[in-house]
Every structure is written in C-alpha cells, then in structure tokens.
Design brief:
This protein is α/β, with parallel strands linked by helices. It folds into two domains: 99 residues, Urease, subunit C, domain 1; 307 residues, Alpha-Beta Barrel (TIM Barrel). 33% of the residues lie in helices and 21% in strands. It contains twelve helices and 19 strands. Strands 1, 2, 3, 4, 5, 17, 18 and 19 form an eight-stranded mixed sheet that branches. A six-stranded parallel sheet has the order 9-12-13-14-15-16. 49% of the residues are buried. The mean pLDDT is 96.
Length: 416
C-alpha cells in the first residue's frame, strides 16, 4: 500500500481540487481519494509526502509517432532497421519521462513495441497502436519520390498504400490481424509528404467508409489524418471516431462533430514549434524532401487569420477534445507538455479543462475507462508536480518540476 499525502489533488475529472488530499494505492490501482482529515492511513503504508505540490493523473497523449527514423534523408537511407528500432526505445522512454503515461501511436509502432513495454523490456507509456498509416497512392503516407521508387519510412511495417474499396478492405483487415488497436487513415495530404498539398482531399467517401466498417466489425475505431476542410467533411460523413489535426474545420463540421460525438485531437503546437525550430536551426529545415517550410508558413497564417474564432466556437459548442501532440522523430520528443499551453492559448480553454482533456477525456477517447483519473478502481498513473498547473499550465513543461512519475503504481521517476 502507498499513500500520497498532503498535496493539492486534481482528479482529472474536473472536480474542485482537494487541498491537503490523500491518494491511496494498492498494487497498481487507486483505492481511495479524498481529504487527509477524512481518510485513515493504513499503518503499513509507504508514505509519499506531497505537501506543497500538485497531484494529478498521468497525461495521455492521443497522437504520437514513437518510433525512430532519421530526419536527414541521407542518414535514413544508411541506417539499418535494427538501428532504427533500438533508437526508438529512446524516443519511447523520453515520452514517459516527461509525464506521458499512455499514448496512442499513430503509425510506426507494431505489436512488438506494445508488448515490450507491457513486459517491462523497455520503459515507456502504455501504447495503443495503429501499426501503419493507411494512404492512397500519392497520398500523405506514400513516400514515392520522382526517382521512381518508394522510400519506406520504417521497414518493419507493412506497405500501407491502398486504392479502391477492396484494397482498403484488405489492408485494414491485415492491420487488424497484426494487432492494431485502431486504424489510422489519411483523408488529406500533409506537411511532411512529398507529392501532395496539406489541404487536398484523399480517399473517396466509399473508401473511408469501408475502413470505418471493417474496423467496426472488430470493435475498433478509426482515427483520420485530416487538415483541409474538404477531407475533414468527407471523413466526418464516413463516421470516423477521431479527427486528427482538423485545423480547418468550419461551422458545418462543428455541427456534425457535436451530432456524432466525434473526437477532435487538434495537435496545435506542431506547426508554430516547427516554424520556431527552423529559425534556430536552418539545417533542420533542409533535411527532408517535402516543402515543409512553405506548408508550415501557409497553415500557420491561415490558422491565425481565420481559425481561432472557429476553434473557440467548437469548444463552446462542446466538441469533444482530447490532447495529442504529433510528437515524432521530427519534433516534440520529450516536450509533449508544450501542447497544453497551446490549448489554453489557441482554444481559449481553462487550465482545468485542458488537464481534463489530457486525462479523463483522453482516456474516454481511447476507450480506457480504467485510466485518466485519480479515482478508486483506476490504474495508478500519478504525477506529483512542484507548482500549480491550474495557475500556470506551462509548469508541466519543466522536467525538474515533475517530482514523481508513476505508472500503474510503480515509480519511473521519484524525486520526492
């Protein structure tokens, strides 16, 4: 039995913080949460004194790419698959080390990564996996280059390019057979891809609907990469579970998302952080084949000029929002908590609402009602923070302020 005593407890469900609170943990589960005055502490409990600190659930990042590939194309072509797999373990551990205890991998991690984490072979957040990102020919996940070849991003993955309803059906079934927890499919182009624009629609309604139906037959959801409004509308009509990025939603999209209960994972930090990183490191901006700089600049300007009021309207209307970063080898590894600040700034959400989106709502999005809250029966994923994220959410970005990172009752970091 472990007892976390004296901290300000933020339960992740949106309730008022409990001052001088107690969280009791037995093995990997939370057994009690409440005020210190109302709880009898077992005599044999291992006590963690959290006085002066904030206690909250582990963060759930609903959009990561946790496996490695070199950003430098030349280096990518010279690295062996086993090297990339071994480097991936660093990315995965860094994700846990910044306070993310559960993550949804949007392409790159296969079932072996998930199993290695579950068995404690490597340290990392528990993973849900999509294995590979389903793309049409010439789409966001198709790394065909004009030299006349496809450059695989991660050679341990199956080819995820499909065209037509029957081919999409085959590929979705293959990924589900290989252990995918959900399907990730691209309904628009993207920033990093070579042969498309970020706002062009990809896959027909029939193809997207086929993916949704095949996944549903296995009781699995579909997450859709969609940036431009045309692809977003098609994906929503197809009935996808979650909209990833979704930056150029409009009021029609909001209506449909509210009606259908579609989740929005907005990944807000990625573009502005990429622009800033490129200013600091010009070489970083020249290592890929796609015209990322031009796309980032165009998207960011349109975001600022047009989208902030629409995003805030989506929040006001009650669109379901879950936190996600799009962390990858490219950016944000171990800096996942930056996303929380952008959710406050761009969406106009309160720090409390952002924390709920990154904990209990994120758990709901990924179908894990045993995660995301400090509540009896939930798995004991707990952070102890030196500071008050309800007053300044950016405190979570400082690793030195993360005094305890606990996953399922076991401490990964303990500086208490």
């Amino acid at each position: 039995m472990q007892a976390i005593l004296g901290g300000r407890v933020v339960d992740g469900l949106g309730g008022d913080p409990i001052e001088n609170g107690v969280v009791l943990i037995n093995d990997d589960r939370i057994t009690h949460v409440g005020s210190k005055d109302a709880v009898q502490i077992p005599r044999d409990a291992q006590v963690i004194d959290a006085a002066g600190h904030t206690v909250l659930p582990g963060i759930i990042d609903c959009h990561v790419h946790g496996t490695y590939r070199s950003r430098d194309v030349r280096r990518h072509l010279l690295n062996s698959p086993t090297y990339n797999v071994l480097r991936s373990t660093q990315i995965i551990e860094e994700t846990l080390a910044c306070g993310v205890t559960t993550a949804r991998d949007m392409g790159g991690a296969d079932a072996g990564f998930r199993q290695a984490i579950e068995e404690g072979i490597i340290a990392g957040p528990r993973l849900q996996i999509s294995i590979a990102m389903v793309s049409q020919t010439g789409g966001h996940g198709d790394f065909w280059v004009p030299a006349g070849m496809r450059i695989p991003k991660r050679t341990w993955l199956p080819d995820a390019v499909a065209d037509g309803v029957d081919d999409v059906r085959r590929l979705v079934r293959q990924l589900l057979m290989a252990g995918a927890d959900f399907i990730k499919i691209c309904a628009t182009g993207g920033i990093t891809s070579v042969n498309d624009s970020w706002d062009e629609p990809q896959f027909t309604l029939e193809e997207l609907r086929c993916a949704v139906e095949e996944a549903a037959a296995k009781r699995k959801p579909v997450a859709v990469h969609a940036e431009g409004v045309d692809g977003i509308r098609t994906a929503l009509e197809a009935g996808v579970h979650s909209l990833e990025h979704g930056w150029f939603i409009d009021e029609q999209c909001i209506d449909r998302m509210v009606e259908q209960g579609t989740w929005w994972v907005p990944t807000l930090a990625l573009v502005p952080m990429s622009i800033e990183h490129r200013k600091k490191d010009a070489a970083w901006g020249q290592q890929q084949l796609g015209d990322e700089a031009q796309k980032d600049t165009e998207i960011h300007k349109k975001m600022q000029d047009e989208q902030f009021p629409i995003w805030r309207e989506a929040v006001r209307r009650g669109v379901k929002i879950a936190m996600g970063t799009d962390q990858s080898h490219r950016l944000l590894v171990g800096e996942n908590m930056v996303e929380l600040r952008f959710m406050v700034q761009y969406l106009g959400m309160s720090p409390m609402d952002v924390l709920v989106s990154a904990t209990s709502k994120a758990a709901e999005c990924i179908g894990r009602n045993d995660l995301g809250a400090l509540a009896p029966g939930r798995l004991a994923d707990v952070l102890i923070v030196d500071g008050d994220p309800l007053n300044d959410i950016s405190v979570l970005e400082n690793r030195e302020c993360l005094k305890l990172i606990m996953k399922a009752g076991s401490a990964y970091t303990n500086r208490m």
